[in-house]
Design goal:
The protein is mainly α. It has helices at 14-21, 61-67, 72-84, 97-100, 103-115, 117-127, 135-150, 191-203, 208-230; strands at 38-41, 56-59. It has nine helices and two strands. Bound molecules: zinc ion (ZN) (2 copies).
């Protein structure tokens, strides 16, 4: 990419932070244990790694500081050397080989996750208007975002779009209900089902709206009853 100059450091937008910090289930890609609170440039800026999203991975502060200025491969190699020659001080402290052996694999997997265009689009459409002025702001928004993600049974970007749009999300699981088509029965019913419904309503001498209203009220009452039973 020609337009990205060496060492150029841009400020990331809030949704880009969220996109990175929620990857790898919100955990640091290096230790796999602590929550990720920082963005690490996998290929360090100092080493020609451009400051763009495909170079980002989620990291905890500790690992980020420790790895500083090295690529993951280099860091792993240093830790290997440290285990072979502990006296030569290749690493300032030891990480268990079981943990660091997986780093390169985890970094590759998380970079693929972050590069997923469907996922990226979801964050942009859902959180593109958010702005943070400091880390406290950011962590508030991050908590909200994680809570939203936990509320879905699947990652929303894995569910179908009702209509592709660059302006607003129409993923089935999160925002599909806002789609203009979702207001009409034909969006949910097969044509034969819709015809049968209209015929039944006509035969009962009723209006579609009355029947729908009754069905929806019955459905909601039933759902509340189920919930009370569980509680
Ligand atoms: Zn870590
Ligand atoms: Zn959505």
């Amino acid at each position: 990419m020609d337009e990205i100059r060496r060492g150029e450091r841009g400020k990331q937008r809030t949704w880009q932070w969220l996109m990175v910090l929620t990857a790898h289930r919100g955990l640091c890609v290096y230790c796999g244990r602590s929550s990720a609170t920082t963005i690490d440039h996998e290929k360090p800026i100092a080493d020609d790694g451009a400051d763009v999203w495909w170079n980002f991975v989620p990291a905890c502060e500790d690992c980020n500081r420790w790895k500083k200025g090295r690529s993951a491969n280099r860091w792993v190699a240093d830790m290997d050397l440290h285990h072979m020659y502990p006296k030569e001080r290749f690493a300032t402290r030891a990480m268990s080989p079981r943990v660091y052996a997986g780093i390169t694999r985890r970094v590759a997997r998380v970079q693929r996750e972050i590069a997923d265009m469907d996922r990226r689009e979801w964050f942009q459409l859902h959180y593109g208007r958010e702005k943070h002025r400091n880390k406290a702001d950011l962590f508030d928004i991050l908590d909200r975002c994680k809570a939203e993600l936990r509320s879905y049974p699947h990652y929303p970007w894995r569910t179908p779009r009702l209509r592709p749009s660059r302006m607003f999300c129409t993923r089935l699981i999160c925002c599909g209900y806002q789609h203009p088509k979702a207001r009409h029965l034909v969006a949910f019913l097969e044509p034969e089902e819709h015809a049968a419904f209209k015929r039944a309503v006509f035969n009962e001498r009723l209006h579609e709206g009355d029947v729908l209203g009754r069905l929806i009220r019955e459905y909601l009452a039933g759902r509340d009853r189920d919930r009370d039973d569980v509680a």
